[in-house]
Amino acid sequence: MKQFLLLLFIFLQGMSMRAHESLNDSPWQFSLRLGYSVGGTAPIGLPASIRSLDSFTLQPNVQVGADVQRDLWGRWGLTAGLRFEGKHMQTDATVRGYYTEMVRGGQRLDGHFTGHVNTSVRQWMLTVPLAVTLRAGSRVTLHAGPYLSWLLSRQFSGYAYDGYLRVGDPTGAKVVMGSQPDSRGEYDFGDDMRRLQTGIDAGLDISLTPAWGAYASLSWGLTGIHRSGFTSVRQTMYPIYGTLGLTYHL
């Protein structure tokens, strides 16, 4: 994956050097971007069953893309783009009475878990953003609008450990979970994730030189990452990520 991203960026850089002179006088403005995203997939409002977030590990959330923008009404315009990006997450949390489903020793269980939960989310996707732009100054352009993402790969998995599960309801039979693979509860809900995600993206671009710039943006998913009807996790999980990066103007 790292080699693919490097080759893609070198290829786009080469194209930009050839196209820069011919596009210089065009009303359409083309740019390439390379960024890094930080965020997570979480419910809106932390539920009472999640007592604390004990660890958060940075992931390879690279964003590579291209945009086309045009001014239409004075300082106002439109932009569209294409992104290849990762929205991953790795967390460890302490929970109490947290409803979930899991497999332990080949047996499928569901109920309310108290203890620790380690969750890994992996999402590689193609994203198409469409936004309204506003030139707020000679160097700053604001943008906001919807995006549509198609997942190329998806994973939502983890394990529950060092605690116990009340099977079925909060007063059900108690099943103790250890920290070793054969004694903890495993779960994998990747097949229940949506292939198509929608949301809102907003941010700003800053021109540093005639060719180079920087950008910052926040993307907020409007659809949960799991399909409707999914009940193995009671809270709807939304992807929320902030991105910082560099742009190259053609």
Summarize the structure in words.
Helices cover 9% and strands 64% of the residues. The protein has one helix spanning 2-23, and strands at residues 29-42, 50-56, 62-73, 76-86, 89-104, 107-135, 140-167, 174-177, 185-188, 196-207, 212-221, 238-249. 30% of the residues are buried. The mean pLDDT is 90.
Architecture blueprint of SSEs:
Layout: H1 2-23, E1 29-42, E2 50-56, E3 62-73, E4 76-86, E5 89-104, E6 107-135, E7 140-167, E8 174-177, E9 185-188, E10 196-207, E11 212-221, E12 238-249
Antiparallel strand pairs: 1-3, 1-12, 2-5, 3-4, 4-6, 5-6, 6-7, 7-8, 7-9, 7-10, 10-11, 11-12
Strand order of the largest sheet: 1-3-4-6-7-10-11-12
Low-pLDDT stretches are: none
Structural class: mainly beta
Total beta strands: 12
Distance between the termini: 26 Å
Amount of helix: under 10%
Whole-angstrom Rg = 22 Å
**Strand residue content:** over 45%
Average pLDDT level: 90
Order of helices and strands: HEEEEEEEEEEEE
Please give the largest β-sheet. Answer: 8 strands, antiparallel, barrel
Total DSSP helices: 1
* Overall form: elongated
